[in-house]
Write a structure and sequence with these properties.
46% of the residues lie in helices and 17% in strands. With 439 residues, the chain is of the alpha/beta class. The longest helix has 29 residues.
């Protein structure tokens, strides 16, 4: 069902004024004010061209915003089609910071409530967060990070639909930060760059035994086997990714070099069985309390002197405190996801016995990647709606656009850290990085 159409209903002209008064007060002080529409009726147009128009499709939302001007309420209303954005979605995301700063006195609330009472309330005004059972399940995780809850959290995010991801990911199906040599690189080229960059950082050699923790749809293990003739093994908790990767290995004829399995990193077998270990976009799901166990698992399966590449997102502050941003991520996108600052990540790796050789920040690369993903998703909107429906499409569109802005602002970072399992002073990488950039 098209929510934006279903929830639109005309408001008598005599009620436009109270609706406009509420919106003007709530938006007072915003740097780039939008044009405003209530359903199909234009409430306010600026003399200058606005970057976007905020469309309120149910006036009942204004009542809720008067009582609780919460950015998460706006996000939920967008997911349901109760509000829409015509124009630049990135500009509209400034509403998050603005509504976090809105402070209404009791006098303000009383005056606005008088206006709000004039607005009719629909039967859908008592809105609960979207997502049904999945959303309720996400709020029950409580960052326990047991094997069961980690498996459920991974399924929540990654088992949406293989076909849905295929609409906007690159042909290799890499769902992590690409590596752009120039801002004009295509996403396809940038993701190939990233796969090769990781292989070179790990100094892969033919016959090396490579473990990829959180292997996704198999892009890295297949690339490493094809290009560097390693024996690669990938593990994932996502059943749909596992099924796709297993079929991909068969189609590419890599059965003799590549294997994948459904396995938790805590259940890895053996000691010193891998020459190299990669973990790309996975450790954000581990949980801060579980990071020592994660590092210990890598230490156990990596041979002495072997290299470990950890590629993951970081925060600009220590720990994972409850904020609008973290609540949004855990409620709608990554249940139980937790981030920390890069210095704490490095300290944890060193405490686990790793020697760090290289740290590379990729923050602008992820901003570019996310903008590509949003553009590609928007271009395939109708197919996405057929695959996952309006609500999921809107969640992903908003989430990825918001993340792009977070990376651009510096609130979120991403780093590749190359480290080794200590081996009596052995230095397992070249003296310079020149080998990473050879033609």
């Amino acid at each position: 069902m098209d929510h934006s159409t279903a929830l639109t209903r005309p408001l008598p002209p005599d009620l436009h004024a109270p609706a406009l008064r509420i919106l003007r007060r709530l938006l007072a002080g915003i740097e780039r004010p939008p044009a405003l529409k209530l359903g199909d009726a234009i409430l306010h147009e600026l003399e200058t061209h606005p970057e976007y128009t905020l469309v309120i499709r149910d006036p009942g939302l204004l009542r809720r915003l008067v009582l609780r001007p919460d950015p998460l309420l706006l996000a939920d209303a967008y997911f349901r089609g109760v509000i829409d954005v015509e124009g630049d979605l990135y500009s509209a995301l400034a509403l998050k910071d603005h509504f976090e700063a809105v402070s209404l006195t009791w006098r303000d609330k009383l005056a606005l409530w008088r206006d709000a009472l004039m607005l009719r309330v629909s039967e859908q005004d008592d809105l609960k967060p979207v997502g049904g059972l999945a959303s309720r399940m996400a709020r029950r995780f409580a960052h326990r990070h047991s094997r069961q809850t980690d498996r459920a959290a991974i399924s929540f995010h990654y088992d949406v639909s293989n076909a849905f991801y295929g609409l906007w990911l690159d042909v290799e199906r890499v769902y992590s930060c690409a590596y752009f040599e120039t801002a004009h690189d295509s996403l396809e080229q940038a993701q190939r760059n990233k796969l090769e960059h990781i292989c070179r950082k790990l100094r892969l050699q033919p016959g090396d035994r490579l473990l990829d923790i959180g292997c996704g749809w198999g892009a890295l293990v297949c690339w490493a086997a094809r290009r560097h003739r390693v024996r690669a093994h990938g593990i994932t908790l996502s059943e749909r990714q596992f099924e796709y990767a297993r079929e991909r290995i068969r189609v590419e004829g890599l059965q003799g070099l590549v294997t994948v399995e459904l396995r938790d990193y805590r259940d890895l077998d053996g000691v010193a069985v891998y020459d190299k270990v990669s973990s790309v976009g996975m450790f954000e799901h581990v949980g801060l309390a579980n990071l020592p166990a994660y590092y210990a698992a890598v230490q156990r399966v990596l041979r002495p002197g072997g290299l470990f590449l950890n590629h993951g997102i970081t925060h600009d502050e220590e720990g994972w405190n409850r904020t609008v941003a973290t609540e949004f991520i855990n409620r709608y996108v990554f249940p139980d996801g937790e981030l920390d600052c890069v210095s704490n990540i490095q300290l944890g790796m060193e405490r686990a016995g790793f020697e760090i050789h290289d740290v590379e920040g990729l923050r602008p690369h992820y901003a570019l990647t996310l903008r590509h993903w949003v553009e590609r998703l928007e271009a395939r909107r109708e197919e996405a709606l057929q695959e996952v429906g309006e609500v999921t499409y809107r969640i992903w569109r908003l989430y990825m656009a918001a993340c792009a802005l977070e990376f651009e602002s510096g609130g979120t970072g991403i780093y590749q850290i190359v480290a080794s399992k200590r081996d009596r002073g052995t230095w397992p990488v070249p003296l310079t990085r020149r080998d990473l950039y050879r033609e």
